[in-house]
Amino acid sequence: MRIEKLKQERVNEFVSYCKKHKMELDDSFLYEEDLQDFEPNDENPTYILTNQQGIIVGAVSLMIDDYSKRGKKARFRIFHSEMDNIECYTRMMEAILKHTEGLEKVYLFVPFTNKKLVEFMEGLKFEVERYSFVLVREELEVPAFRLPPDYDIRPFHSGSDEETWCEVRNASFAKLQGSETPITPEMVQKMMTSEDHIEGGSMILYHQNRAVGVIRGTDDEYENSPIMNIGPIAILPEYQGQGLGRILLRASLQFAKEKSYSKTILCVNADNERAKALYIQEGFEQVEAVTCYKYELT
Q1: How far apart (Å, rounded) are the C-alpha atoms in residues 226 and 207?
Q2: E strand intervals along 88-209
Q3: Whole-angstrom distance, CA of residue 134 vs CA of residue 233
Q4: With the C-alpha atoms ordered 119, 110, 31, 48, is the resulting torsion angle positive or negative?
Q5: Assign residue 23 a region: left if phi > 0, alpha if psi is -120 to 50, beta otherwise?
C-alpha cells in the first residue's frame, strides 16, 4: 500500500471513490454538489491510499474552513479504506495529522451500522463525543399554526439580515455541543448564496420587531431523491418552551409543501431530547443514527 497526497489530476478518481462508498459513511459532504468543485488545498487536505496497481483503495480528507479554524476543530469529509486493516487507517491518520496545526481536535460521524469503522476508530483512540439522529418526514398534511399576538415571520433578506441571523443563532446554540462556535455575518452571506439555497426558505421570527428565532430550508438529496433539509432551527433561550419552535417548524414544512418537496429531513443531537420529541410529534421518523467520534490533538 502507498499513501500519497491527492493531486489535481487524480481528483476525479477520488470523487468516484467517495461516491462509491458514501452509503457506508456519513454522506453529508459526499454528494455531487459537494464534490463537483472539489480541490485539494489547505482547506481540504486529502490523501489517497493506493494498491500495487495504483488504484485508490482508501481516502482521507479534512475540511478546515474558517468556521473550523474559529472553533479549532475540523471535520472529516471521508476517512475510509476498502482494506479491512487498521494499519491502512493508521497510515492515513498519520498523514492527515500533519495538517492540523492550530486545531484542538478532529471529528468524524460514523453510522451505527458500520461496525467495522467503529472498531477502527476505537483502535485509533478516537473517543465518543455525542450521538446524533437523522429524521425524515414523508409527505403529510402540515398542521395549521397560529402566531401569538405581536409575533410575525419574515423572510431573510440578504444584505440586511446577516447580523440578526448571527445574533439569534449564536445565542441559541452557545451551549449546543458541536455548534457552539459562533458564526459571522460573512459566513451567513456565503451560506445564503450557496448552491443549495432556496429563495424564501430562510425565515426569521420576530416579537415586537425583535428577532427571536430563525429557521432555514435548503435543497438536499436523500437516497437519490430530492428532499428539503431543515436546519438550523434556533430560538433565543429566553423564548424557548413557548411553542415557538413548533410554529417555525410548521412554517418551514408549509414552505416545503409549496415548493413541491415530498420529504423533509433534519438532524438532532441525542441529548436534545425536547427537540427530538417535537420532531417525532410533528411526523418525523428516525432513519439513521450516527456517533460523533473525536480525536483530541492537545
Answers
A1: 34
A2: 105-111, 127-137, 151-155, 197-207
A3: 15
A4: negative
A5: alpha
**In terms of Cα–Cα distance, which of 73, 55, 53 is closest to 63?**
73
Residue whose C-alpha cell is 439555497: 197
Taking the C-alpha atoms of residue 74 and residue 101, their distance in angstroms, rounded to an integer, is 11
Q: 115-134 pLDDT, tens per residue? A: 999 999 999 999 999 999 99
Rounded to two decimals, the pTM is 0.89
Taking Cα atoms as reference points, which of 20, 44, 52 lies closest to residue 96?
44
pLDDT tens, position by position, 164-221: 999 999 999 998 888 999 999 999 999 999 989 999 999 999 999 999 999 999 999 8
Measured in whole angstroms, the distance separating CA 10 from the mean position of its chain's CA atoms is: 26
Query: How many residues are given for the chain?
Result: 298
Residue whose entry in the numeric block shows the C-alpha cell 488545498: 41
User: Which neighbouring-strand residues pair with 203?
Assistant: 155, 215
